[in-house]
Amino acid sequence: MIINRPSYLYPTPGRVALVLAGGAARGAYEVGILQYISEEVAKALGKAPPLDIFCGTSVGALNGCAMAAFADTPATRVTRLVNSWRSLRVDDVVRISPSHVTKFLRSAIGQGPLQSEVADERYGGLIDPVGMEHIIRDSIPFARIEEHLRSGLLWGVTVSATHIATANTLVFVARHEPGLPRWSRDPKVVARRAQLRISHALASAAIPLMFPAVRIDGEFYCDGGLRQNVPLSPARHLGANRVLVISPRYIDEVPRMPERPDPLARMPGPMFLVGKALNALLLDRVENDIERLQRINELLLAGQRRYGPEFLTEINVAMGNTDPARGLRPLRALLVRSSQNMGRMAAEYVRSSQFGQRASGFVSRLLYKVADENEHEADLLSYLLFDGEFAAQLIELGRKDARAQHKELCEFFTQADDWQ
């Protein structure tokens, strides 16, 4: 018997989305996983694994846009990313200039911009973004993303940012098809069609208080990770059949309160607290999201076993969902995330002689002081340590974690799902 299946139930892999989380300098970890996939998984499959949709937030948006811009050269695009990350020097990226500190302090006490600053495209933040802008501009040809979308080489690319005035999440969407798909009913998440530019990526990566907010079409935006650090929803709305999620966030055991109070316990320094605050701001609940996806998959699969292969179509019709990209459908997901504490790795590296030989500016001395005051871990360092040698450590960690899931990765790109 021939069954007329909806388009989203065609044989695997269908539309495959790469979902990249935020994490500032931790983004090098994502590149390590992508390098393993482009080399070892591709070798096992005998071809480049298909990736049609890229959804990123913060540094994940930067990595995703770089992957999308070189979609026509899948064999070398990750090598470009690796080289870009390994060439970084913290003194070039994390710059603290007197003018930015002055503007930051004025905004902190409620004073508006000077007349000469009213039209500035970036405002606020302690770190001068010029160094980062130069690196991104030289590394990512954003115009090529639109070319690949028009040709059909890509299906969709999204960049998530936070609209400062309303705290809404703005998902800037570039896609092969015209217009926008129907979007979430969440009033705090708004989709907007856009031809992606460097301003969108910089806005997505503008960590509050650190990097200046970015003006786009007259409105200021900052880091999208404040409300959507792992952009699973955009991938679904763009019609992904399966999503590969990469997160540099390490989840260890929940710290326990000491059995006996320590009367001599020392109050952690402000930099330690800032690092923990960043962890809280960029908290991802991706395990909960993927567990929810798995429960929905199991429910739909059970319905098909009980009522036949037309169950999915019928339930969507009954719910008024005629758009396959929006209706209920199984969505396979695979998560790869860090197996090590990057704050601890960062503290160890900054205290090493290798870091001392590579960095000598004011910011480097400040980072060393943070590492010295926080013996065991320094989360803030892992966000700001845009250093090529530290990036190399994170890239290798990403390769190691991907290697541990080699079988799952190969099956993700090839194995048909139970509901097909």
Give structural notes.
The protein has 420 residues and is α/β, with parallel strands linked by helices. The chain has 18 helices and ten strands. The protein has helices at 27-45, 59-69, 77-86, 90-93, 98-108, 130-139, 143-151, 198-204, 232-237, 270-281, 286-307, 311-318, 342-350, 353-358, 362-373, 379-384, 388-404, 406-414, and strands at 16-20, 53-57, 122-123, 156-163, 168-175, 189-193, 213-216, 219-223, 242-247, 332-337. Strands 1, 2, 3, 4, 5, 6, 7, 8, 9 and 10 form a ten-stranded mixed beta sheet that branches. Strand 4 and strand 5 (168-175) form a beta hairpin. It is globular, with a radius of gyration of 22 Å. It starts with 15 loop residues before the first strand and ends in a 6-residue tail after the last helix. Residues 1-12 have low confidence and may be disordered.
Walk me through the topology.
Layout (H helix, E strand, L loop, with lengths): L15 E5 L6 H19 L7 E5 L1 H11 L7 H10 L3 H4 L4 H11 L13 E2 L6 H10 L3 H9 L4 E8 L4 E8 L13 E5 L4 H7 L8 E4 L2 E5 L8 H6 L4 E6 L22 H12 L4 H22 L3 H8 L13 E6 L4 H9 L2 H6 L3 H12 L5 H6 L3 H17 L1 H9 L6
Parallel strand pairs: 1-2, 1-9, 2-4, 5-6, 9-10
Antiparallel strand pairs: 3-7, 4-5, 4-8, 7-8
